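Ticket #4471: structure output looks truncated?

Reporter: J.K.
Steps to reproduce: submitted the chain below (171 residues) through the standard prediction queue, then opened the result file.
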Amino acid sequence: MHPRLLWLLSALLLAACSSQPVRTANKPKPSTTTPSISQITVDSAQRQEVLLYALGLLDVGYQFGGKNPEAGLDCSGMVRFIYQNAVGVNLPHNAAQIARLARPIARAELAAGDLVFFNTQGRPFSHVGIYLGDGRFVHAPSSGGKIKVETLEKRYFADRFEGGRTLFVAN
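Returned output as attached by the reporter:
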């Protein structure tokens, strides 16, 4: 891992203290409707907020259909929770629907806070995670698991990688 990225991730983990981040008053209020791709305008300056929320959810238990950290989260529930609380974007609770809302980007263009998609159930875009940088991403793996960091180079994920997508207006 690149030393600068390792330092940044360490600093973010220490800042997050493994607790759920607290939403401050100056953050945008979450929308109650699901946006279309043309309505999503997440500024790149908000990437750090997405990362802090993602890292703050490490070790939260997996729960199929889970919508909040207290009950547990599945992969799309995790992404939805993070984007809603970090930047006020209300995403669907479905990886394939999130993929349709996001703009495709090349793997080389992935930046922290972007989304990575996998075919883990024999259908396109059946799993999603949040890219951290340096080939690593946060995801809610499966029943009995906990939210954790993985690498795109791990054979399981490398074989199932479908691509990266972004919700940020400037990547």
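Triage note (M.O.): checked the attachment and the full token line is present. The beta strands are 67-68, 72-73, 103-105, 115-118, 127-133, 136-139, 148-151, 161-166.
Status: closed, working as intended.
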